[in-house]
Design goal:
Largest sheet: none
GO biological process, one term: dGTP catabolic process
Keywords: Hydrolase
InterPro entries: dGTPase, dGTPase-like, dNTPase_2, HD/PDEase_dom, HD_domain, PHydrolase_assoc_dom
CATH architecture of one domain: Orthogonal Bundle
Helix content: 55-70%
Radius of gyration: 21 Å
Protein name: Deoxyguanosinetriphosphate triphosphohydrolase-like protein
Number of helices: 19
CATH class of one domain: Mainly Alpha
Family: Belongs to the dGTPase family. Type 2 subfamily.
């Protein structure tokens, strides 16, 4: 590994001291704990863009997390970063996501607006720090500082101040100091964006909400479509094949762009250690040209897919389900599992309970408690 990588032997450790594992380093141990967690298994039935019941081949939070981990490992290997840490962060970054994707998150935030709000990145940290119950000596998974830091991708200042008061100089400090997380954490943020832009094209076309003609209007994508057809003219009458080939080329080019741009940025910054990298500003990045073209793609997907009338109609019902579940549990906490019903902070207990649900369990609970079937 490069000298500016996060070496597990130099980790800032865990909240609760543990003896080293005989066959795994600290970040490998974190990854294994994440994979075996209940929250990780639930991701298979949590929405990425399309609800689980809309089709078997659409991405879920689980398959998205696996794709982020794959892209992250590939880039980390080329840059000499810590692949184990990248994999752990990538697999855990969505553990706090609600059912029904961003619609569920927005609805839960509205319900919690007067009670601390709801942020899915902060919820992911709550999952690994508190909500998982697997070990006799502590709550949560007791992950390494570096993995926890990478999981907390975004954090509002009030929440950062609250976390830092409980954990001075800990994972939230960078949001107050305006410094950066590890290069591995920065990498996961970028791999996340690369992954969802690519797989949302695939899912959008598969669903019929995006047309192949529409995709040709996006400069970044159409560049690789034309390239693929020039080299393989037989694909002209095989749209699914040229869609895959164009997307594959786009993914690869974005990966190579990140690698080349980051190498140059690290060299220019002259960093020699992981701690120096944290003080050097964002170093994991696209070139200016690729950043502009990727932003165009993101705006297109936002307007044409995420705000498609069919998607917004379904997500409107999903928000309704979350809001009505919240009200029902708030009025009758005994309808929740006993450990949630017994908590004093009823609003946060309800938010934690709903956030942990899969799409299908949330819909079953909504029908049970309201007598009405949505979606």
């Amino acid at each position: 590994m490069a000298p500016w990588a996060s070496h597990s032997s130099q980790s800032r450790g865990r909240h609760h001291a543990e003896l080293p594992a005989p066959t795994r380093n600290a970040f490998q141990r974190d990854r294994d704990r994440i994979v075996h967690s209940t929250a990780f298994r639930r991701l298979v039935y949590k929405t990425q863009v399309f609800l689980n019941h809309e089709g078997d081949l659409f991405r879920t939070r689980l398959t998205h997390s696996l794709e982020v981990a794959q892209l992250g490992r590939s880039i980390a290997r080329a840059l000499g970063l810590n692949e184990d840490l990248v994999e752990a962060v990538a697999l855990a970054h969505d553990l706090g996501h609600t059912p029904f994707g961003h619609a569920g998150q927005d609805a839960l935030h509205e319900c919690m607006e007067q009670h601390g709000g709801f942020e899915h990145n902060l919820q992911s940290l709550r999952v690994v720090d508190q909500l998982e119950e697997r070990y006799p000596e502590f709550d949560g998974l007791n992950l390494s500082f570096e993995t926890r830091e990478g999981i907390l991708k975004h954090c509002s200042r009030p929440n950062a101040e609250a976390i830092d008061a409980l954990e001075p100089g800990g994972v939230a400090r960078r949001f107050l100091d305006r410094t950066q997380p590890s290069l591995e954490a920065q990498l996961c943020n970028l791999a996340d964006a690369i992954a969802y832009n690519a797989h949302d094209i695939d899912d959008g076309v598969r669903s019929g909400l995006l047309s192949l003609d529409q995709m040709q209007e996006v400069p970044l994508f159409d560049h690789y479509r034309l390239q693929a057809l020039a080299e393989h003219p037989q694909l002209k009458d095989k749209p699914r094949r040229w869609l895959y080939e164009s997307t594959r080329r786009m993914l690869s080019e974005q990966v190579y762009d990140v690698i080349d741009t980051t190498r140059a940025a690290i060299a220019a910054a002259g960093v020699q250690t992981a701690d120096e990298a944290r003080l050097a500003g964002p170093l994991l990045r696209f070139s200016d040209e690729m950043k502009t073209r990727s932003a165009e793609l993101k705006r297109f997907l936002f307007a044409s897919l995420y705000r498609h009338p069919q998607v917004t109609q379904i997500m409107g019902q999903a928000k309704q389900a979350v809001r009505e579940l919240f009200d029902a549990y708030l009025a009758q906490p005994s309808e929740m599992r006993a450990e949630f019903a017994a908590r004093e902070d009823r609003h946060r207990a309800v938010a934690d309970y709903i956030a942990g649900m899969t799409d299908r369990f949330a819909l079953r609970e909504h029908e049970r408690l309201t007598g009405r079937k949505l979606l």
